[in-house]
């Protein structure tokens, strides 16, 4: 009889393989139907596209997907040394979303050049690609956890350790505890360092302690309540993986939704929209806790999305909400300010905010 761990591995692999095949087959079939209508009902073009899709999925599965899965599942040392990026998601983004977005662009190009308005392969196709990508991301996130019982790392009573602020009082600084050194005549000697006097340092330490005591309120939390309300405070990393994965793709989902507008889809603006949407999917290659993820989010998503959204609003009007434009703008500005500008001398003074 198969163990629970084996069943979980088989379930994950079947689910990820389905996310690889289903979007390709559906998008290729709809593209084949479009080619049949463009060519006046010719079935030869239809079956050629279907045969090409079957050949592509078979080749990718045998030459890329299965060998990579076997290498990762059998070589524990190989997978344990990879901590900042995920090879499975990288392979998936290359072999599935890339050809899917390419087929969507090809279908738009065929209709734009021929003056046809037969089918927009966006609503079902793009949603299917993004849902499959989210499922692959979720599987990779929850793979280390069990599917039954409590998640590892949680307390038995589901209470996560948190700082508790019970009483706040003025903390004595170094300047109030140390007595000044007096000389033979009773004069006070102040030892000075190379960068300034100790008195200045004591004043800085005292000011820092006050600021730290004030900010303690912002990050303090009380004990979790007992009784029936106790269930409201439960945190499970498996649930958070689902929530974070869907929120992670909201901006990309809104960008591809703009392509569903007829004026945008039947124009050349469809190409930068889909290209930038695909580039934003490359963020999933980095691990959720990778320090490189904020940089990738700005370079691959927020900055390009900000430019293309401003251009779309200027050309087609309000086809995208102002909320996402402000989101992209604020993310870019805050990243540049806190990462680069705060290192300048003018923004690196303790006397300021």
From TrEMBL:
It comes from the Eukaryota. This is Transmembrane protein 236. The chain crosses the membrane at residues 9-26, 46-68, 89-108, 120-139, 322-340. Keywords: Membrane, Transmembrane, Transmembrane helix. The keyword Transferase does not apply. InterPro entries: Uncharacterised_FAM23-like_TM (IPR020394). It comes from Clupea harengus. The keyword Hydrolase does not apply. PANTHER family: TRANSMEMBRANE PROTEIN 236.
């Amino acid at each position: 009889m198969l163990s629970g761990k084996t069943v979980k591995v088989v379930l994950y692999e079947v689910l990820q393989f389905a996310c690889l095949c289903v979007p390709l087959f559906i998008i290729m079939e709809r593209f084949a139907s479009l080619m049949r209508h463009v060519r006046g009902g010719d079935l030869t073009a239809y079956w050629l596209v279907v045969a090409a899709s079957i050949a592509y999925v078979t080749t990718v599965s045998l030459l890329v997907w299965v060998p990579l899965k076997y290498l990762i599942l059998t070589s524990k040392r190989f997978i344990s040394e990879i901590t900042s990026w995920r090879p499975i998601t990288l392979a998936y983004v290359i072999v599935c979303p890339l050809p899917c977005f390419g087929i969507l662009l090809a279908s738009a190009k065929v209709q734009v050049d021929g003056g046809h308005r037969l089918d927009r392969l966006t609503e079902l196709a793009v949603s299917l690609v993004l849902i499959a990508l989210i499922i692959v991301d979720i599987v990779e996130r929850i793979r280390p956890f069990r599917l039954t019982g409590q998640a590892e790392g949680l307390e038995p009573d589901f209470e996560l350790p948190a700082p508790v602020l019970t009483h706040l009082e003025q903390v004595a600084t170094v300047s109030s505890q140390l007595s000044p050194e007096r000389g033979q005549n009773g004069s006070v000697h102040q030892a000075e360092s190379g960068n300034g006097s100790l008195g200045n340092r004591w004043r800085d330490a005292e000011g820092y302690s006050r600021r730290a005591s004030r900010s303690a309120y912002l990050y303090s939390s009380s004990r979790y309540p007992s009784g029936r309300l106790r269930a409201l405070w439960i945190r499970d990393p498996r649930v958070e993986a689902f929530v974070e994965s869907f929120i992670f793709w909201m901006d990309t989902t809104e960008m591809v939704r703009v392509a569903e507008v007829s004026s945008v889809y039947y124009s050349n603006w469809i190409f930068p929209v889909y290209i930038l949407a695909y580039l934003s999917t490359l963020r999933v290659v980095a691990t959720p806790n990778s320090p490189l993820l904020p940089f990738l989010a700005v370079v691959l998503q927020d900055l390009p999305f900000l430019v293309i959204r401003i251009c779309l609003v200027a050309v087609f009007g309000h086809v995208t909400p102002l909320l996402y434009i402000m989101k992209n703008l604020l993310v870019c500005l805050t990243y540049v300010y806190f990462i680069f500008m705060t290192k300048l001398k003018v923004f690196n003074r303790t006397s300021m905010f």
